[in-house]
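S1.2 Input.
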Amino acid sequence: FLHILLPVDVFKLHVYTHIDHKYYIQAALYELCWQVVQGNLKLDLVASVLGDMMELRDDMPSILADVFSILDLETGALEEKNKRDHYTQLVGACLCFVPEAILKERLDPETLESLGLIKQAHQFNQKIVKIKTKLFYKQQKFNLLREENEGYAKLITELGQDLSGNITSHLVLESIKSLIGCFNLDPNRVLDIILEVYESRSDQDEFFLSLIKSYMCEPLTLCHILGFKFKFYQEPNEETPKSLYHIAAALLHHNLIELEDLYVHLMPLDAAIVEEHKRDISEAKQIARKLVMVVLPSEKNEDKEKDKEKEEEKNEKPPDNQKLGLLEALLRIGDWHHAQSIMDQMPSFYATSHKAIALALCQLVHLTVEPLYRRAGLPKGARGCVLHPLRNKRAPRPAETFEDLRRDTFSMLGYLGPHLSHDPILFAKIIRLGKGFMKEDTLLSCFLSIADQVLLPSISLMECNACMSEELWGLFKLFPYQHRYRLYGQWKNETYSSHPLLVKVKAQTVERAKYIMKRLTKENVKQSGRQIGKLSHSNPTILFDYMLSQIQWYDNLIVPVVDSLKYLTSLNYDVLAYCIIEALANPEKEKMKHDDTTISSWLQSLASLCGAVFRKYPIELAGLLQYVTNQLKAGKSFDLLILKEVVQKMAGIEITDEMTSEQLEAMTGGEQLKAEGGYFGQIRNTKKSSQRLKDVLLDHELALPLCLLMAQQRNGVVFLEGGEKHLKLVGHLYDQCHDTLVQFGGFLASNLSTEDYIKRVPSIDILCNQFHTPHDAAFFLSRPMYAHQILSKYDELKKAEKGNKQQQKVHKYVAACEQVMTPVHEAVVSLHPARVWDDLRPQFYATFWSLTMYDLAVPHSAYEREVNKLKVQIKAIEENPEIPLNKKKKEKERCTALQEKLQEEEKKQLEHVQRVLHRLKLEKDNWLLAKSTKNETITKFLQLCLFPRCIFSSIDAVYCARFVELVHQQKTPNFCTLLCYDRVFSAIIYTVASCTENESHRYGRFLCCMLETVTRWHSDRATYEKECVNYPGFLTIFRATGFDGGNKADQLDYENFRHVVHKWHYMLTKASVHCLETGDYTHIRNILIVLTKILPCYPKVLNLGQALECRVHKICLEEKDKRPDLYALAMGYSGRLKSQKVHMVPENEFHHKEQPARSATPASQQNGPGSTGKPATSTSKTDEGTSEDGDRGKDKSQGTTKPVNKANSAAAKVTTSNGNAVKDRDDKEKSGKEKKEKKEKTPGSTPETKAENRREKQRDERAGKEERAAREGKEKTPKAEREKAKAEEKSSKDDKAKAGNGEPAEPSREREAIKESKSKEKGDRSAVAGSLKSPVPRSESAESERDHKRRKLDSHSSPSHSSSVKVSMA
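S1.3 Output.
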């Protein structure tokens, strides 16, 4: 018994726990009853439980009847009769608490019969059929209009009465009820008539809606009647009246009918609408293709026939789109909810592409934003048309705050899309709200979306509305350029494919752009510019994309295109900047030409366009500059061409290595002189454009990053970006990167204020050590900062102590320099290893790198030249009668003001140079230390100072040459001018080979300036004696005690200096011929550039010029068909060289070649294993005795020296020889005692003279043979004799080393030196004619010979008519 009751208790617990869940109750009851049917539970027990359950819920009988109904079906299908009996007994037991009526509804008639609830099942079924037929199929008879019209006439009269009085819908409804009852009217027909009258009196919404709401009992009936009305107008050429749309919209709005019920009655179907939309898109694309494609005449005829057929089809007007009509009515009454539902059923922008709907939606937006626009968007002084809100209380609420716009306005605009173009006033309102929002609120993403989806597409569909374009720019300029460019990108690349109208507009724009660009010339710029302006107001992205594609192909379009852009709006200019950047960043375009040696012409064309456009028009530069910066970050330097063009055009700063000497001279003056005479073109009116460029760089913090990236990228071009690129291209990219850095740095230095520049440029040690900036670039960036700081400090000191004396000013300037430069001196120590500072002082190093040509000299001739030009200009203005008087006055005033500025600038620079020179005079004694050899000092000076800077820029090349001359003129201690010049001229092969093309121009200019100085000294004895004699730079003996300018024996005399200059010319010839013979492109190109640059000063000797001419002529023949650029260079140089022949002189006129009758006293030479004596200069024409070999054979230590004279035992000596003599015949002026001493030291001259005569004869004979051999194309080098001479010289040195005293060995060593000299001279003679073809042989014997020379510890004499300058430290 307990076992049977357990499920019942569980059942009760389950039911009571889930008493509110009908499903659980049904499931539990079903399980319980099923257990009875199965026979598992007793009937009476379950019946009592079910009786108790009836009290739980009111609908429990009905739930139980449902369970019985399910069991009735299940048990009726079972074969076991006992289970059916159990079921019948259970239902019978429950009759006491389940009503019979419910069971009769749910159970099968046979079951009811077995329970005794009905007599016969068959009769019961018949009765049910009769009731259903009467209920659902028998019509009630009413009087129709055609049968009985009196009642309907009264009804229409009742509904059509004047409703202005106290008549209400309730009173009319009572009358209608009376009429229906009296005349037995059909209620549905009455409702139809009410709707008809409402349709004719649609202004009485409130009355009829209230009446219908009171009258109607079933919404579906009303919906069917409306649907029947709409169906009546679905025939072709029928037009659905707007009044019907209105009443349907009103009924929907007041929820009297459901949109889903009415929507099915409207035509066309949604599928048909989708098909129509797809068809429109395909037609638009087809039209676009036709506009782009070239169509043949036959195809044109076929297209015309098809168009005619389509027009005929269109003549048959299709039925109205009732869904769109209803949508318009909904929008008119302000029912946005239902309107949105309808638009969601259609393709995007399909509904609003119909003008009526777009205007209705625009009107609704007007009403929604009106209060907020009045508060936050209305411009000052504007009144605007006052809009009255809808009387409909259910319409969208007007927005009072920007946050309210989220509610409905933004979604309305989203559905409106590009069709906001139908209402320019609303377009302007939305833009002004956006501007107001940017000042107040933070709904940025929403307004960006509206701009992307609504504003920009809408302006594409507007007809040439420049005002709207400017209005839109008023909003867009408040966004960062990143947001704007994203919008332009979406507009250009995605928007035009979203709608058929936009597809057509794009095609039409391209077609019109082609038409304009085909006819654009310099002559019709104005007319074409206006057409371009009109077209750009609506679709700038499409227009500019096509124009840029044309410019990339035809660069001659750049000038007319730039001039034609003056009619653009501000928005269009900004879009143009984006389109240019997109064109530059096109990944499908190669930035190199197919030969991989030059930059693509399309990139060069775009760069030129950038410079011209950004200079002429007020376009924001931030995006373009950031693009270049990003490219540099990525290690790509191609796009630096853009920055170069922009800076050149906007700031007027040109970078070229083809400057004339007059321009270069002008570039060493002040800013005004640079602008007037330093550039090829007179670049005027750059003040505004350069200010714009400066502001962008400062606002976006791009000035220093660009400088640092360019400085780092120079080496990156070679080592990272170079890769597999052609060497010519790598060199070009390196030059472009370097030139742009120089140009950009010059712009910053001349345009940034002192505070801005100092604030942004870090100290020199941070630049080099932290940012890894190359030293030359780091000092280039820091140099203006030092100049600014010194001038600022100088002005402070002048104000602090007022004194007008020039001397006081100079002292204050020196004090200012010390205060500013002392931290720099400390900072530069970390840039190089400690051993560097053993020879150069940091002060000297910093001084060299911090000064410029502006500090060293005043270009008086350049100032005078420009002032004279202005005077001539003034005179021409005065004499020109065609110029109006007012214009003539303005021009004269401008020229006069400019003239005064130049004169004032010249005076200011003169004072500055005097101060700087005084400062250098005070500093010079501490510049160079004497801790190591002079050769080592000069090496470090060349390596760390001269060579890096002389190839940095053309002005720096001139500066380096002038600085060397200045250091010489200042009589700087421990600086050997001769050695410096010798090192510069004697080893140019490797320097030339390692230069790029532009660096070759600068290096050539540097050599030219150095040669100018040397040529000036060489050409006139008085000049030489004035500027070189008694100067420490021309000492031939350096004494540890310092320089005492009184001993003439320590100086290099004039004639020996001429020999040295000849040797330098010879070394230049040898290096040049070597480079020309290598066959390497870079070697040949660079040496030709260098030779062209130094042509004013070299060659001056006839035989050297002939040797060069021969080699260059050969290059012309070899390269004519192989490498045209080398051929052009060689031909250009060859022509100019021939024109210089008239200025060349024979060798005996260039320097004195006669042999002296007697030998002079040879200077003492240092011997021993540790000797540091090295040949510094020599005129040897072969590898023997050159300073080049001396440089390679630097000694690492100093040894003990053997003194010749006790008084000068600690002196370092320089040996100069002329044949076998050391001093010139000017020694005759000395006392007889000195002559006698020299004679005692000199070996017998008669045998030596005889020997020399014999060797002279042999030498002449050999020279003649060598010249003949050269003409025959043979190459002979007297190597055997040179080896023999070296062996003899070495044995002489060994003998001297073994001797304890240097004096006894002198005669023997001198004789050996004479022998060597003569043998080498013979070789030199032949070398000019023949061996110049191969001046640096690469054979093993040459290498062993060079190694032998490195091991030589003593000096060796040079050939006749030459000088060997030897430097050593005691």
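S1.4 Remarks. The mean pLDDT is 79.
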